């Protein structure tokens, strides 16, 4: 039918547990809405395909009869993701590992060519002697698909039954035996391709997968996908937050209050560590500039907050020491027959404590206040 029965993406409710390299892995099967259904826009199709591409570790590209140019063009999203994420040096953390691509062609005739040959031929560059821009774009997609070549497999299925309109009502025993045989082979191939979902360098558990899904759906609802750059920023957002956390932790070691120079030194070192972490973990080769600017802006905000906190802590501490010295000077002033030597000794002891304990940006202003207190108290002592 032209109107789809599957709406959006359906998830099989009960995970199927399989043994992969000695580890029990829960496998989720997703069924996506068909392309080009009645009343749906291309953007809707792109988003469904985007979500399936990002979530899956095996992507089954189900095509009827043959491979059309539109089918290859539709892979452009996966191609862009490939360019951004799959092409990185092995061993480095990436947003997510590439989905293995299974071209599933449902047809009854191949005329001597295998499905793999048909796929390979369809992905060959198109001659463009006249420099046609549209053909250039087509060839760019083909060149990019080569990145996924190691993860691509082709398989064919014959039609289950001549009366395709009756398929929903037929039992397995009524279907074409060749179809049943090939279907079992397909199941084995898919099982052999399954692998755990890896995001940011580690295997996801159930809760982490749900969180990962939430990020993608949120981006979809905001209209950020299928723009590759926007998708990169979605993943980089988590990296920026992690880098900011590192910056905060390093700045927290400063132990406020400190001098302005010392706080600047802590800032420079913390910023370098945060930027180094970002450079190691950020996603995308061409779209990280926005995240870099975001990180710098957030670091500036945090640094300003630390500066304000430093001023407050410094003022609080210096005020306490200043008040102690002020009280000491007033006490010396009211003593009977105070000697200048005793007055100077008392102020020297008080000032030493002030100089040692009053630190940070408020120190300079409180030093001036201390000098005024000393001169005022000294004048009163002389008058007495």
TrEMBL record:
Keywords: Hydrolase. Residues 201-330 form the Guanylate-binding protein/Atlastin C-terminal domain. This is GB1/RHD3-type G domain-containing protein. One of its GO terms (molecular function) is GTPase activity. Coiled coil: none annotated. It comes from Panicum virgatum. Residues 4-195 form the Guanylate-binding protein N-terminal domain.
């Amino acid at each position: 039918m032209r109107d789809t029965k599957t709406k959006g993406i359906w998830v099989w409710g009960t995970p199927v547990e399989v043994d992969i390299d000695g580890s029990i892995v829960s496998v989720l099967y997703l069924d996506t809405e068909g392309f080009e259904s009645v009343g749906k826009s291309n953007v809707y199709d792109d988003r469904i395909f985007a979500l399936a591409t990002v979530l899956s570790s095996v992507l089954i590209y189900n095509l009827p009869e043959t491979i059309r140019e539109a089918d290859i063009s539709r892979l452009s999203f996966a191609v862009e993701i490939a360019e951004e994420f799959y092409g990185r040096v092995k061993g480095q953390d990436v947003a997510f590992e590439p989905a293995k691509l299974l071209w599933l062609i449902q047809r009854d005739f191949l005329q001597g060519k295998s499905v793999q040959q048909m796929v390979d031929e369809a992905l060959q560059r198109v001659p463009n002697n006249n420099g046609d821009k549209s053909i250039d774009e087509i060839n760019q997609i083909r060149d990019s698909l080569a990145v996924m070549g190691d993860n691509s497999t082709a398989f064919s299925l014959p039609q289950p039954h001549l009366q395709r309109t009756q398929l929903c009502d037929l039992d397995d025993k009524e279907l074409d035996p060749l179809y049943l045989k090939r279907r079992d082979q397909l199941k084995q191939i898919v099982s052999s391709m399954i692998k755990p979902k890896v995001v940011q360098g580690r295997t996801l558990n159930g809760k982490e997968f749900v969180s990962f899904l939430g990020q993608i759906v949120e981006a979809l609802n905001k209209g950020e996908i299928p723009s590759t750059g926007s998708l990169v920023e979605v993943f980089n957002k988590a990296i920026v937050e992690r880098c900011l956390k590192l910056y905060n932790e390093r700045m927290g070691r400063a132990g406020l209050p400190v001098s302005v120079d010392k706080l600047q030194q802590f800032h420079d070192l913390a910023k370098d560590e945060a930027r180094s972490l970002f450079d190691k973990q950020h996603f995308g080769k061409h779209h990280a500039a926005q995240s870099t600017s975001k990180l710098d802006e957030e670091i500036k905000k945090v640094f300003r907050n630390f500066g304000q906190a430093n001023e407050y802590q410094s003022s609080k501490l210096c005020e306490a020491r200043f008040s102690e010295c002020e009280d000491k000077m007033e006490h010396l002033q009211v003593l009977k027959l105070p000697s200048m030597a005793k007055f100077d000794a008392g102020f020297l002891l008080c000032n030493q404590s002030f100089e040692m304990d009053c630190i940070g940006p408020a120190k300079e202003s409180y030093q001036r206040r201390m000098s005024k207190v000393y001169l005022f108290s000294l004048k009163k002592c002389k008058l007495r």
